[in-house]
Amino acid sequence: MADPVFKSKITPYVFTSWILAAFGGLMFGYDIGISGGVTGMDDFLIKFFPRIYERKLHAAENNYCKYDDQLLQLFTSSLYLAALVSSFFASKACNVLGRKPTILMASTFFMAGAALSAAAQVGWMLILGRILFGVGVGFGNEAVPLFLTEIAPVHLRGAVNILFQLAVTVGIFIANLVNYGTSTMHPNGWRFSLGGAAVPAVVLFAGSLVITESPASLVERKREEEGKAALKKIRGVDEVDAEFEEILSACEIASKIKQPFKKLMKKQSLPPLVIAVSLQVFQQFTGINAIMFYAPVLFQTLGFKSDASLLSSVITGLVNVGSTFVAIFLVDKVGRRKLLLQACCQMLISQVAIGVILHLKLSETGSLDKGLAAVVVVMVCTFVMSFAWSWGPLGWLIPSETFPLETRTAGFAFAVSSNMLFTFVIAQMFLSMMCHMKAYIFFFFSAWIVVMGLFVIVLLPETKGIPIDSMVERVWKKHPVWKNCFDDDDSKEYEMA
Ligand code: BGC
User: Fold this and answer.
1) In testing the pocket of ligand 1, which one of 142, 279, 288, 397 has its CB within 8 Å of the most ligand atoms?
2) For the CA atoms of 199, 418, 422, 459, what is the dihedral angle to 10 degrees?
3) What residues of the chain score a pLDDT lower than 70?
4) Engineered SS bond to 106: which of 126, 140, 360, 456, CB 3.0-4.6 Å?
5) What is the pLDDT of residues 121-178, one digit of tens each?
6) Which residues cross the membrane (predicted)?
7) Which atom of ligand 1 is nearest to the CA of 388?
């Protein structure tokens, strides 16, 4: 089948919608970046975790076991549990109310979380603040990538969706800078760090009032006229009939499915579901968040002083942002698979090199010599770089573009919740794993990288340039493995279910 050519122009309105929607990513990124720094601040520890502070003062210096404390890790990771649960509610909200109100709700939860955390006097306020942040992340991460994918013209879909990840990386970077500034503001610097999350949330709130709803979501909710008007608005042209027809027929199939989660458990839903969940699980098992959350702690472990370690995490933050642009430019040209496979090689080399250096040269109490420490920083950078143009953005892009409309929000909720679950697992376990496994932790991540490379080779089809509502016919039914999920009888069932 020839590629349908849908007309589109990039008007200022369209561009603004993309940017505003991507502020959802900024909220998420800010939170990823802020926690590690805050939990390293003495004022914060003295107020909420005095026992840990005492231990920190008196602890015998051990490179691999600095702040191994489950409670402190629970502070970082509780947000992800809340996000995990709320992404399923967000999926419902996306279906029933639409993408736009779901984004608005996300920003509201996030603003409330920022206010409560910044004002926290006692532990429960802090934890409730984290939970509100988490619900905000769950709603935002469900609605924003889907929204971006749905409003993007097909030939730019990858690039537009990656605006979300770009915003995540900018959020992480800003958070590192904020922490750098507030760490010397005693005794309330941490309040500014946590409260700063309100800034992207306010922009997102304002943005969600301006953006237009996704046409597919309007049509799905039987508002066809509005859907067509929205499509004209986001395409910047009046001739949208061909694309609108495609949305109509996708919605017609979708309207026959009353229980998307049940439909998701059928054989024909396996390909996008297995891929969405696996990409997210693998994304976390690259070890990226071990670096993101604990970069300051990690660099201290490597023998850098407190300030130098913050600076080092600023460096990795910049590398992360810069390399995401590479993905934006390449994803719709070279495709998804090549980026993922190239990155597997680069990440593997980096992780193994870090593991070998630490294993051979970093004892429990000594420190690395300057030259080797610099090599480790460079390897951390090459690792972050390759993640940023591959598994980072594509972990969100591919699940948002491979489900048919009828299972899209439900399926994507599984992607979001898998991300949250495994971010939680890594955040909760990393410091303890490092304490027990020492340098071997980097070999542990390396082994996962090999598995994910094989996964891409065997099970991941290329989705570049395929219209989002033609995936079943043009991708799954043609794939050597996945076509088995669509034998003839089942396909009928698929059409009728
Ligand atoms: C991941 C996060 C990660 C970030 C780093 C995102 O795609 O989901 O867990 O911290 O990328 O840039």
Assistant:
1) 288
2) -120
3) 1-5, 59-61, 63, 66-68, 293-298, 300-310, 488-497
4) 140
5) 999 999 999 999 999 999 999 999 999 999 999 899 999 999 999 999 999 999 989 9
6) 12-30, 71-90, 102-121, 127-148, 160-178, 190-212, 273-297, 309-332, 339-360, 372-398, 410-433, 439-460
7) 12
Calculate the CA dihedral of residues 331, 333, 338, 339 and round it to 10 degrees.
-30
The Å distance, Cα 289 to ligand 1 centre, comes to 7
Residue with CA at minimum distance from ligand 1 atom 6: 392
**Structure confidence at residue 487 (pLDDT):** 78
Is pTM beyond 0.70? Reply is: yes
Distance CA 162, CA 38 (A): 28
- Chain centroid to Cα 298, Å, comes to 22
Specify whether the CB–CB gap between 405 and 264 falls below 8 A.
Answer: no
Query: Which protein residue has the closest C-alpha to ligand 1 atom 4?
Result: 392
Is the preceding omega at residue 187 within 30 degrees of 0, hence cis? yes
